[in-house]
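Working notes for the structural subgroup meeting. M.R. asked for a predicted model of this chain before we commit to crystallization trials. I am recording the input and output together here so anyone reviewing the notebook later can reproduce the run.

Input as submitted:
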Amino acid sequence: MKLLLVVGACCSEWHIDYRKQLLQRLLNSSHQIMTLILSAADDSLVAVAEQHHIPTQFLPPELNQSQRLARAALANSAFQMRLSAWLKPLRQRTATLGICFYGNWLPPALFELPTCGFLNFHPGPLPELRGMEPDTFAILDGRTATHGTVHLITEQFDEGAIVAVTPELPLTNCMTPPQVFRALTEMGVTTVLNAITAVETNRVVYQPQNLTRATNATRQRARVEAYLNFRQDDAAMIDRRRRAFLSQDIGICLKAEINQRVYAVLDVETWQGEFGGNVGELLGYYQGKGEFAGAPIMRIFDGIAVVRLGRALAFDTLDRAWGATPSLPEIRFDCSRSPLTTWSNIQRSLESLLETFPE
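Returned structure, recorded in token form:
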């Protein structure tokens, strides 16, 4: 098939550039890449395209941003003229099918060019987990398994008919979003290739999404979920929030409100059992040494949470003002890490409030 390939920027935490893997497998197939569309001229895929004489175009800056801003730009007549000129060589190359692999929102003027439409790979199930953070919400929702989805691109983000899905990925209570993301992306390369073959051989089945089951996995919703709620969260939910927001750098830090001030959370550990005090109450401060020295101890309904705090945050700069997430922190939060707090120090810290000791 004659393909248009739109590829987003590479994630800095990837150990393998799966975009390059997809491109190489397409080059080794019978398909022809009519144009490779990238977001930046310094992309490492430019050299691969030049080596194989693949025409390359770069997205207009107006399309290389959020859906909201891209839609707003399309209302500008000057941009519409520039977009029409940018699309002209793509029309002349008469692609049969388009593929989008981790690109941004695409306007109809682009995704309607190929005669068979455009396919997109989404690293999560659809219609559930629509949006930019399906790996994060797979963890937050406590799912036991997830999968990726290849679907038709429509004007509404992640709403097009489903064409193919990856195999199920089991989720353990140790996995982090980067691990989920990488595993689904690796499977997604093969699933995209299979979807192209299905379209080419007329064996494709377009399954409309049941939008009544749709849920959002958006950055906006992630900001709402990036708070430890000591009145409602149990130890398992606190661990999921820790893994979701302390194990990757997505510009959204984990936060907690203590004594009517909001702090960035650097780490948190829980101990389950019967303790004194009321749920949501600050019981005391950790008396041990090390990273948790002096950390507040909060009562949760099935135990306590020891919270290592960063600096206090202003409400209007919560996510913009903080960026101290380690580069590969999922290594720090895997199951092999020993607790940094100890039971003897918990006893010493809460001696006056402890009712019964957990085993």
